């Protein structure tokens, strides 16, 4: 992207820039990735400088950002990569993935519960088996939906997604590495103290273990690219954390134990 710094993974927790010198943070909030916890944390840290983007009102948001380009320090929402192309200000991206099998199970459960969801009427008896038997054109909405949001391109390959992450996303964390992800965000964006509770985050291992083998295979086929990208993102996070000074690694362990992260 034009006028944006390309930051390596090893710089993710680097020196904090003054707010006026930082690019606008575009946080791609992928559905079913610790949304309640993440939203509360972003609201606390950015306060009035946070814009929660409703893609159902896209033109309104684009007009606001054109008229007041420095109104926000961060935009968060269920938008895909590519929003930067319509903004005059320099931007950088961050996001969080979730184990794609667990995410898909959670997504299905959410739609079954939410009678106002556009796809609720398609859920039949509410079983996962029924969901996985839906027509291909209906399931296309969910096919590798995490990488589709990270790239802004349905059908993106794992290879091109990984290249884009390396180039455009200083931080992509995972729900399963939530504390590590939050620590890197705090370090990069100069956040204050954090008191975090994991809310609305199911146990990924438990969810996967409840699946029948046939259900697991069919979901894996639906999110095959997501699985490859997720494996890369997890490994990148592990490498980044392992390279941190011992004192910072200790702070992450304390954060996991207490839910408190000090600046």
TrEMBL record:
<dbReference type="GO" id="GO:0001733">
    <property type="term" value="F:galactosylceramide sulfotransferase activity"/>
</dbReference>
<keyword id="KW-0472">Membrane</keyword>
<keyword id="KW-0808">Transferase</keyword>
<keyword id="KW-0735">Signal-anchor</keyword>
<keyword id="KW-0325">Glycoprotein</keyword>
<protein>
    <recommendedName>
        <fullName>Sulfotransferase family protein</fullName>
    </recommendedName>
</protein>
<keyword id="KW-0812">Transmembrane</keyword>
<keyword id="KW-0333">Golgi apparatus</keyword>
<dbReference type="GO" id="GO:0009247">
    <property type="term" value="P:glycolipid biosynthetic process"/>
</dbReference>
<keyword id="KW-1133">Transmembrane helix</keyword>
<dbReference type="InterPro" id="IPR027417">
    <property type="entry name" value="P-loop_NTPase"/>
</dbReference>
<dbReference type="InterPro" id="IPR009729">
    <property type="entry name" value="Gal-3-0_sulfotransfrase"/>
</dbReference>
<dbReference type="GO" id="GO:0016020">
    <property type="term" value="C:membrane"/>
</dbReference>
């Amino acid at each position: 992207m034009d006028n944006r710094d390309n930051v390596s993974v090893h710089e993710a927790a680097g020196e904090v820039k003054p707010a006026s010198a930082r690019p606008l943070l575009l946080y791609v909030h992928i559905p079913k990735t610790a949304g309640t916890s993440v939203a509360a944390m972003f609201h606390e840290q950015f306060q009035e400088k946070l814009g929660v983007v409703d893609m159902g009102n896209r033109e309104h948001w684009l007009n606001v950002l054109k008229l007041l380009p420095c109104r926000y320090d961060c935009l968060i929402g269920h938008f895909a990569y590519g929003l930067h192309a319509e903004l005059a200000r320099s931007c950088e991206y961050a996001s969080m993935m979730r184990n794609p099998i667990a995410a898909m199970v959670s997504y299905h459960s959410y739609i079954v519960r939410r009678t106002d969801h556009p796809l609720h009427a398609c859920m039949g008896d509410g079983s996962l088996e029924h969901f996985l038997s839906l027509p291909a054109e209906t399931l296309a909405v969910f096919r590798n939906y995490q990488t589709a949001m990270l790239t802004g391109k349905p059908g993106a390959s794992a290879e091109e997604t990984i290249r884009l992450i390396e180039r455009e996303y200083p931080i992509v964390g995972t729900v399963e590495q939530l504390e590590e992800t939050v620590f890197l965000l705090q370090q990069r964006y100069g956040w204050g103290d954090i008191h975090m509770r994991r809310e609305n985050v199911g146990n990924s291992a438990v969810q996967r273990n409840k699946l029948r083998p046939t259900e697991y295979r069919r979901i894996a086929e639906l999110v095959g690219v997501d699985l490859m990208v997720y494996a890369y993102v997890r490994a990148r996070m592990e490498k980044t954390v392992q390279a941190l000074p011992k004192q910072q690694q200790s702070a992450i362990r304390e954060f996991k134990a207490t839910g408190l992260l000090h600046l």
